[in-house]
Amino acid sequence: MHWIRLGNWELEVGSYIRDMSECLFCRIIAGDIKGAVVHEDNDLVAIKDINPQAPLHVLIIPRQHIATINDLRAENDGLVGSMFRAAAALAKQHGYSERGYRTVFNCNREAGQSVFHIHLHLLAGRTLNWPPG
Ligand code: 5GP
Ligand code: ZN
């Protein structure tokens, strides 16, 4: 949790971070921490999840630091579209287009978001139950 002090006021700024070096995914994107990169372009990096929940579990991460999907703005619409198109392309590349796959954005605590830099999960390679746990 992060705080800013304004006179006598201490404000919680929650998932907003001031120093991107504190963000795990910013650090992976910057190359400080190794990730198994499966796709890279000007806007996105896709890495294998360190704790895979399916035979294919990839995280599609924008280079731009955006903490949660609550923080998306209209100017990010193209970026989010490109995240889904990257997911579909990776699913196709791995032979899952027709079998099926799942894409998930977790947002905040009750959804289990643990890294506060938006990422689209791509899961494939097994029957995925519904409703999710
Ligand atoms: P969230 O719970 O925020 O939706 O998803 C975060 C994901 O990041 C989790 O599935 C978790 O396994 C993955 N993760 C956490 N730390 C690392 C890491 O250092 N490297 C990689 N590749 N994935 C990570
Ligand atoms: Zn970040």
List the helices and strands and how they pair.
Blueprint: E1 3-6, E2 9-12, H1 24-30, E3 37-40, E4 44-48, E5 56-62, H2 77-93, E6 101-104, H3 108-111, E7 120-124
Antiparallel strand pairs: 1-2, 3-4, 4-5, 5-7, 6-7
The chain binds guanosine-5'-monophosphate and zinc ion.
Defining traits:
alpha+beta, HIT family, subunit A, five-stranded antiparallel beta sheet, 3 helices, 25% strand, binds guanosine-5'-monophosphate, binds zinc ion
Q: In summary, what is this structure?
A:
The protein is α+β, with helices and mostly antiparallel strands and 133 residues long. The protein has helices at residues 24-30, 77-93, 108-111, and strands at residues 3-6, 9-12, 37-40, 44-48, 56-62, 101-104, 120-124.
The tally of beta strands, per DSSP, is 7
CATH superfamily of the domain at 35-124: HIT-like
Ligand types = guanosine-5'-monophosphate, zinc ion
Helix content: 10-25%
In sequence order, what are the helices and strands, one letter per element?
Answer: EEHEEEHEHE
- CATH structural architecture of the domain at 35-124: 2-Layer Sandwich
Would you kindly provide a written description of the structure presented here, covering whatever features stand out?
With 133 residues, this protein is α+β, with helices and mostly antiparallel strands. The protein has a domain at 35-124: HIT-like (HIT family, subunit A), CATH 3.30.428.10. The chain is 21% helix and 25% strand. It contains three helices and seven strands. The chain has helices spanning 24-30, 77-93, 108-111; strands at residues 3-6, 9-12, 37-40, 44-48, 56-62, 101-104, 120-124. The strands form two sheets. Strands 3-4-5-7-6 form a five-stranded antiparallel beta sheet, with helices on one face. It has a two-stranded antiparallel ribbon with strand order 1-2. A hairpin with a 2-residue loop joins strand 1 and strand 2 (9-12). It is globular. The model is unreliable at 7-12 (pLDDT under 50). Bound molecules: guanosine-5'-monophosphate (5GP) and zinc ion. Zinc ion is lined by residues 20, 23, 25-26, 65, 117.
